[in-house]
Amino acid sequence: MIRRRIEPGRGQESVWDYPRPPRVEGSNRRVQVVFGGKIIADTTRARRVLETSHPPVYYIPPEDIRKGFLRPESSGTTHCEFKGEAAYYAVVVGEMAAPNAAWTYPSPTPGYESLKDYIAFYPSAMDACYLDGERVRAQEGDFYGGWITRDIVGPFKGAPGTCGW
Questions:
Q1: 72, exposed or middle or buried, with CB in 10 Å at 0-12, 13-18, 19+?
Q2: 145: which residues sit within 8 A by CB, 6+ positions away?
Q3: What does each C-alpha distance from 151 to 58, 94, 134, 136, 141 come to in angstroms?
Q4: Torsion over CA of 152, 102, 99 and 15, rounded to 10 degrees?
Q5: 141-160: per-residue pLDDT in tens?
Q6: What is the pLDDT of residue 2?
Q7: Please, which residues have CB within 8 angstroms of residue 40's CB and are 6 or more apart in sequence?
Q8: CATH number listed for the domain at residues 13-136
Q9: In Å, what is the CA distance from 71 to each residue of 97, 129, 151?
Q10: Contacts of 144 (CB under 8 A, 6+ apart)
Q11: What would the pLDDT profile of 82-140 be if each residue is shown by its tens digit?
Q12: DSSP state of 109
């Protein structure tokens, strides 16, 4: 697959204008996560991570996530060359469970301290995720957790043939 930057329209961002290494910035947009028919997270105090070729990932402060819906996973961690070691959570509502559906950086590397204990969710594992009321599309692939909205253009890493980007 050949990557060709899509020219952003008015009010849009191209993921090809995002930096590498990634940048963390605050966001006052309304972020909501729904699972098992319940709003489990709702904030206007998220942090978003912007990285070349990736849709933004939204990290939610733990105090804006409803208590009792996250269960720490014991199945291991992953390593991000920039942010450090990620730990995972299952999202559980009643009898419904989504294993490894959320992650956090308990001890992020220097430069990413503002992500400490904030939690990101894979939109593909949730009933729905919303940004300012718009239902987001999940970034393709089984590893990436980007949130695609009408104001973000690609192409996006994660689709078949994009591994080497």
A1: exposed
A2: 57, 103, 120, 121, 122, 123, 138, 139
A3: 15, 34, 10, 11, 21
A4: 20
A5: 877 899 999 999 999 988 77
A6: 54
A7: 33, 34, 65, 66, 69, 91, 93
A8: 2.170.150.40
A9: 10, 19, 33
A10: 54, 157, 158
A11: 899 999 999 999 999 999 999 999 999 999 999 999 999 999 999 999 999 999 999 99
A12: P
d(CA 24, CA 3): 24
| pTM (two decimals) | 0.94
Spatial contact of 62 and 118, defined as CB atoms under 8 Å apart: yes
Regarding beta strands 54-60 and 70-80, do their DSSP bridges make them parallel or antiparallel, or are they unpaired? unpaired
Distance between CA atoms of residues 86 and 5, nearest Å = 30
Residue 122 structure tokens: 């894979």
Give the alpha-carbon dihedral of 10, 7, 50, 35, to 10 degrees: 70
Tell me which DSSP letter residue 124 carries. Answer: G
Using the Cα atoms of residue 65, residue 134, residue 96 and residue 101 in order, give the sign of their dihedral.
negative
